[in-house]
Amino acid sequence: MSKNAVVLLSGGLDSTTTAAIARAEGFRLHALSVDYGQRHRFELDAARRVAAWLGVERHVVCQTDLATFGGSALTGEILVPRDRDEQAMSHDIPVTYVPARNTVMLSLALAMAEVSDAADIFIGVNAVDYSGYPDCRGEYIAAFERVANLATKASVEGRLRYTIHTPLIELTKAQIIRRGLELGVDYGLTHTCYDPNEEGHPCGRCDACRLRLRGFAEAGIEDPLPYAE
Predict the structure, then answer these.
(1) 212-224 confidence digits (pLDDT tens)
(2) Among 4, 63, 164, 201, which residue's CB has the most CB atoms within a 10 Å radius?
(3) What range does the domain containing 72 cover?
(4) Is the pTM of this model over 0.85?
(5) Does residue 226 fall inside a structural domain?
(6) Tell me, what CATH number does 210's domain have?
(7) How far apart are CA 143 and CA 195, in angstroms?
(8) Structural contact between residues 30 and 7, judged by C-beta atoms closer than 8 angstroms
(9) How many structural domains is the chain composed of?
């Protein structure tokens, strides 16, 4: 059986931990990062750092300009929300939601998996400490896995049976951090912030930063990143 795996690698805390888990499980990693027109482009630099640290077989940065469509604070001029508490984060789907982003990324990962002889795809979605994104839920991942096994030559011919792995989906941010540290992850390599300053320092106030900082606090560990505020 193939031990190749495609890992969606954004350069963030969750995707880095997911990749480390896949490596620990013995997979040969093929990393895919997506340049989708995100305003927090420092994450792509982080993805390259993490890929080098992981020693991946191949790292592809694929350009797919979702900013063309707009509709998100991560790809347009909409202000990124700041200083929201947990209740506010969980109330509605936030403006940082990027329409169809995970569907696009998983589709690209599926294409890469088919040509890489990889039956396994890893994605760092999380349904506990997250901002209400509908494409981070288990039922969505299960539905995409069914599509993957219906829509590819490799699956129809019986060469590959695709599995979408979501090792973080039921973990809190603190649990994710602890697991990553057990695997030797250097979180100083990662980037999480939706609205960094010109030097790439995280704001400490957007939803992503607040969830990350809370996770480190609950884990009893200091976040190694230098925050702007």
Answers:
(1) 999 999 999 999 9
(2) 164
(3) 4-219
(4) yes
(5) no
(6) 3.40.50.620
(7) 32
(8) yes
(9) 1
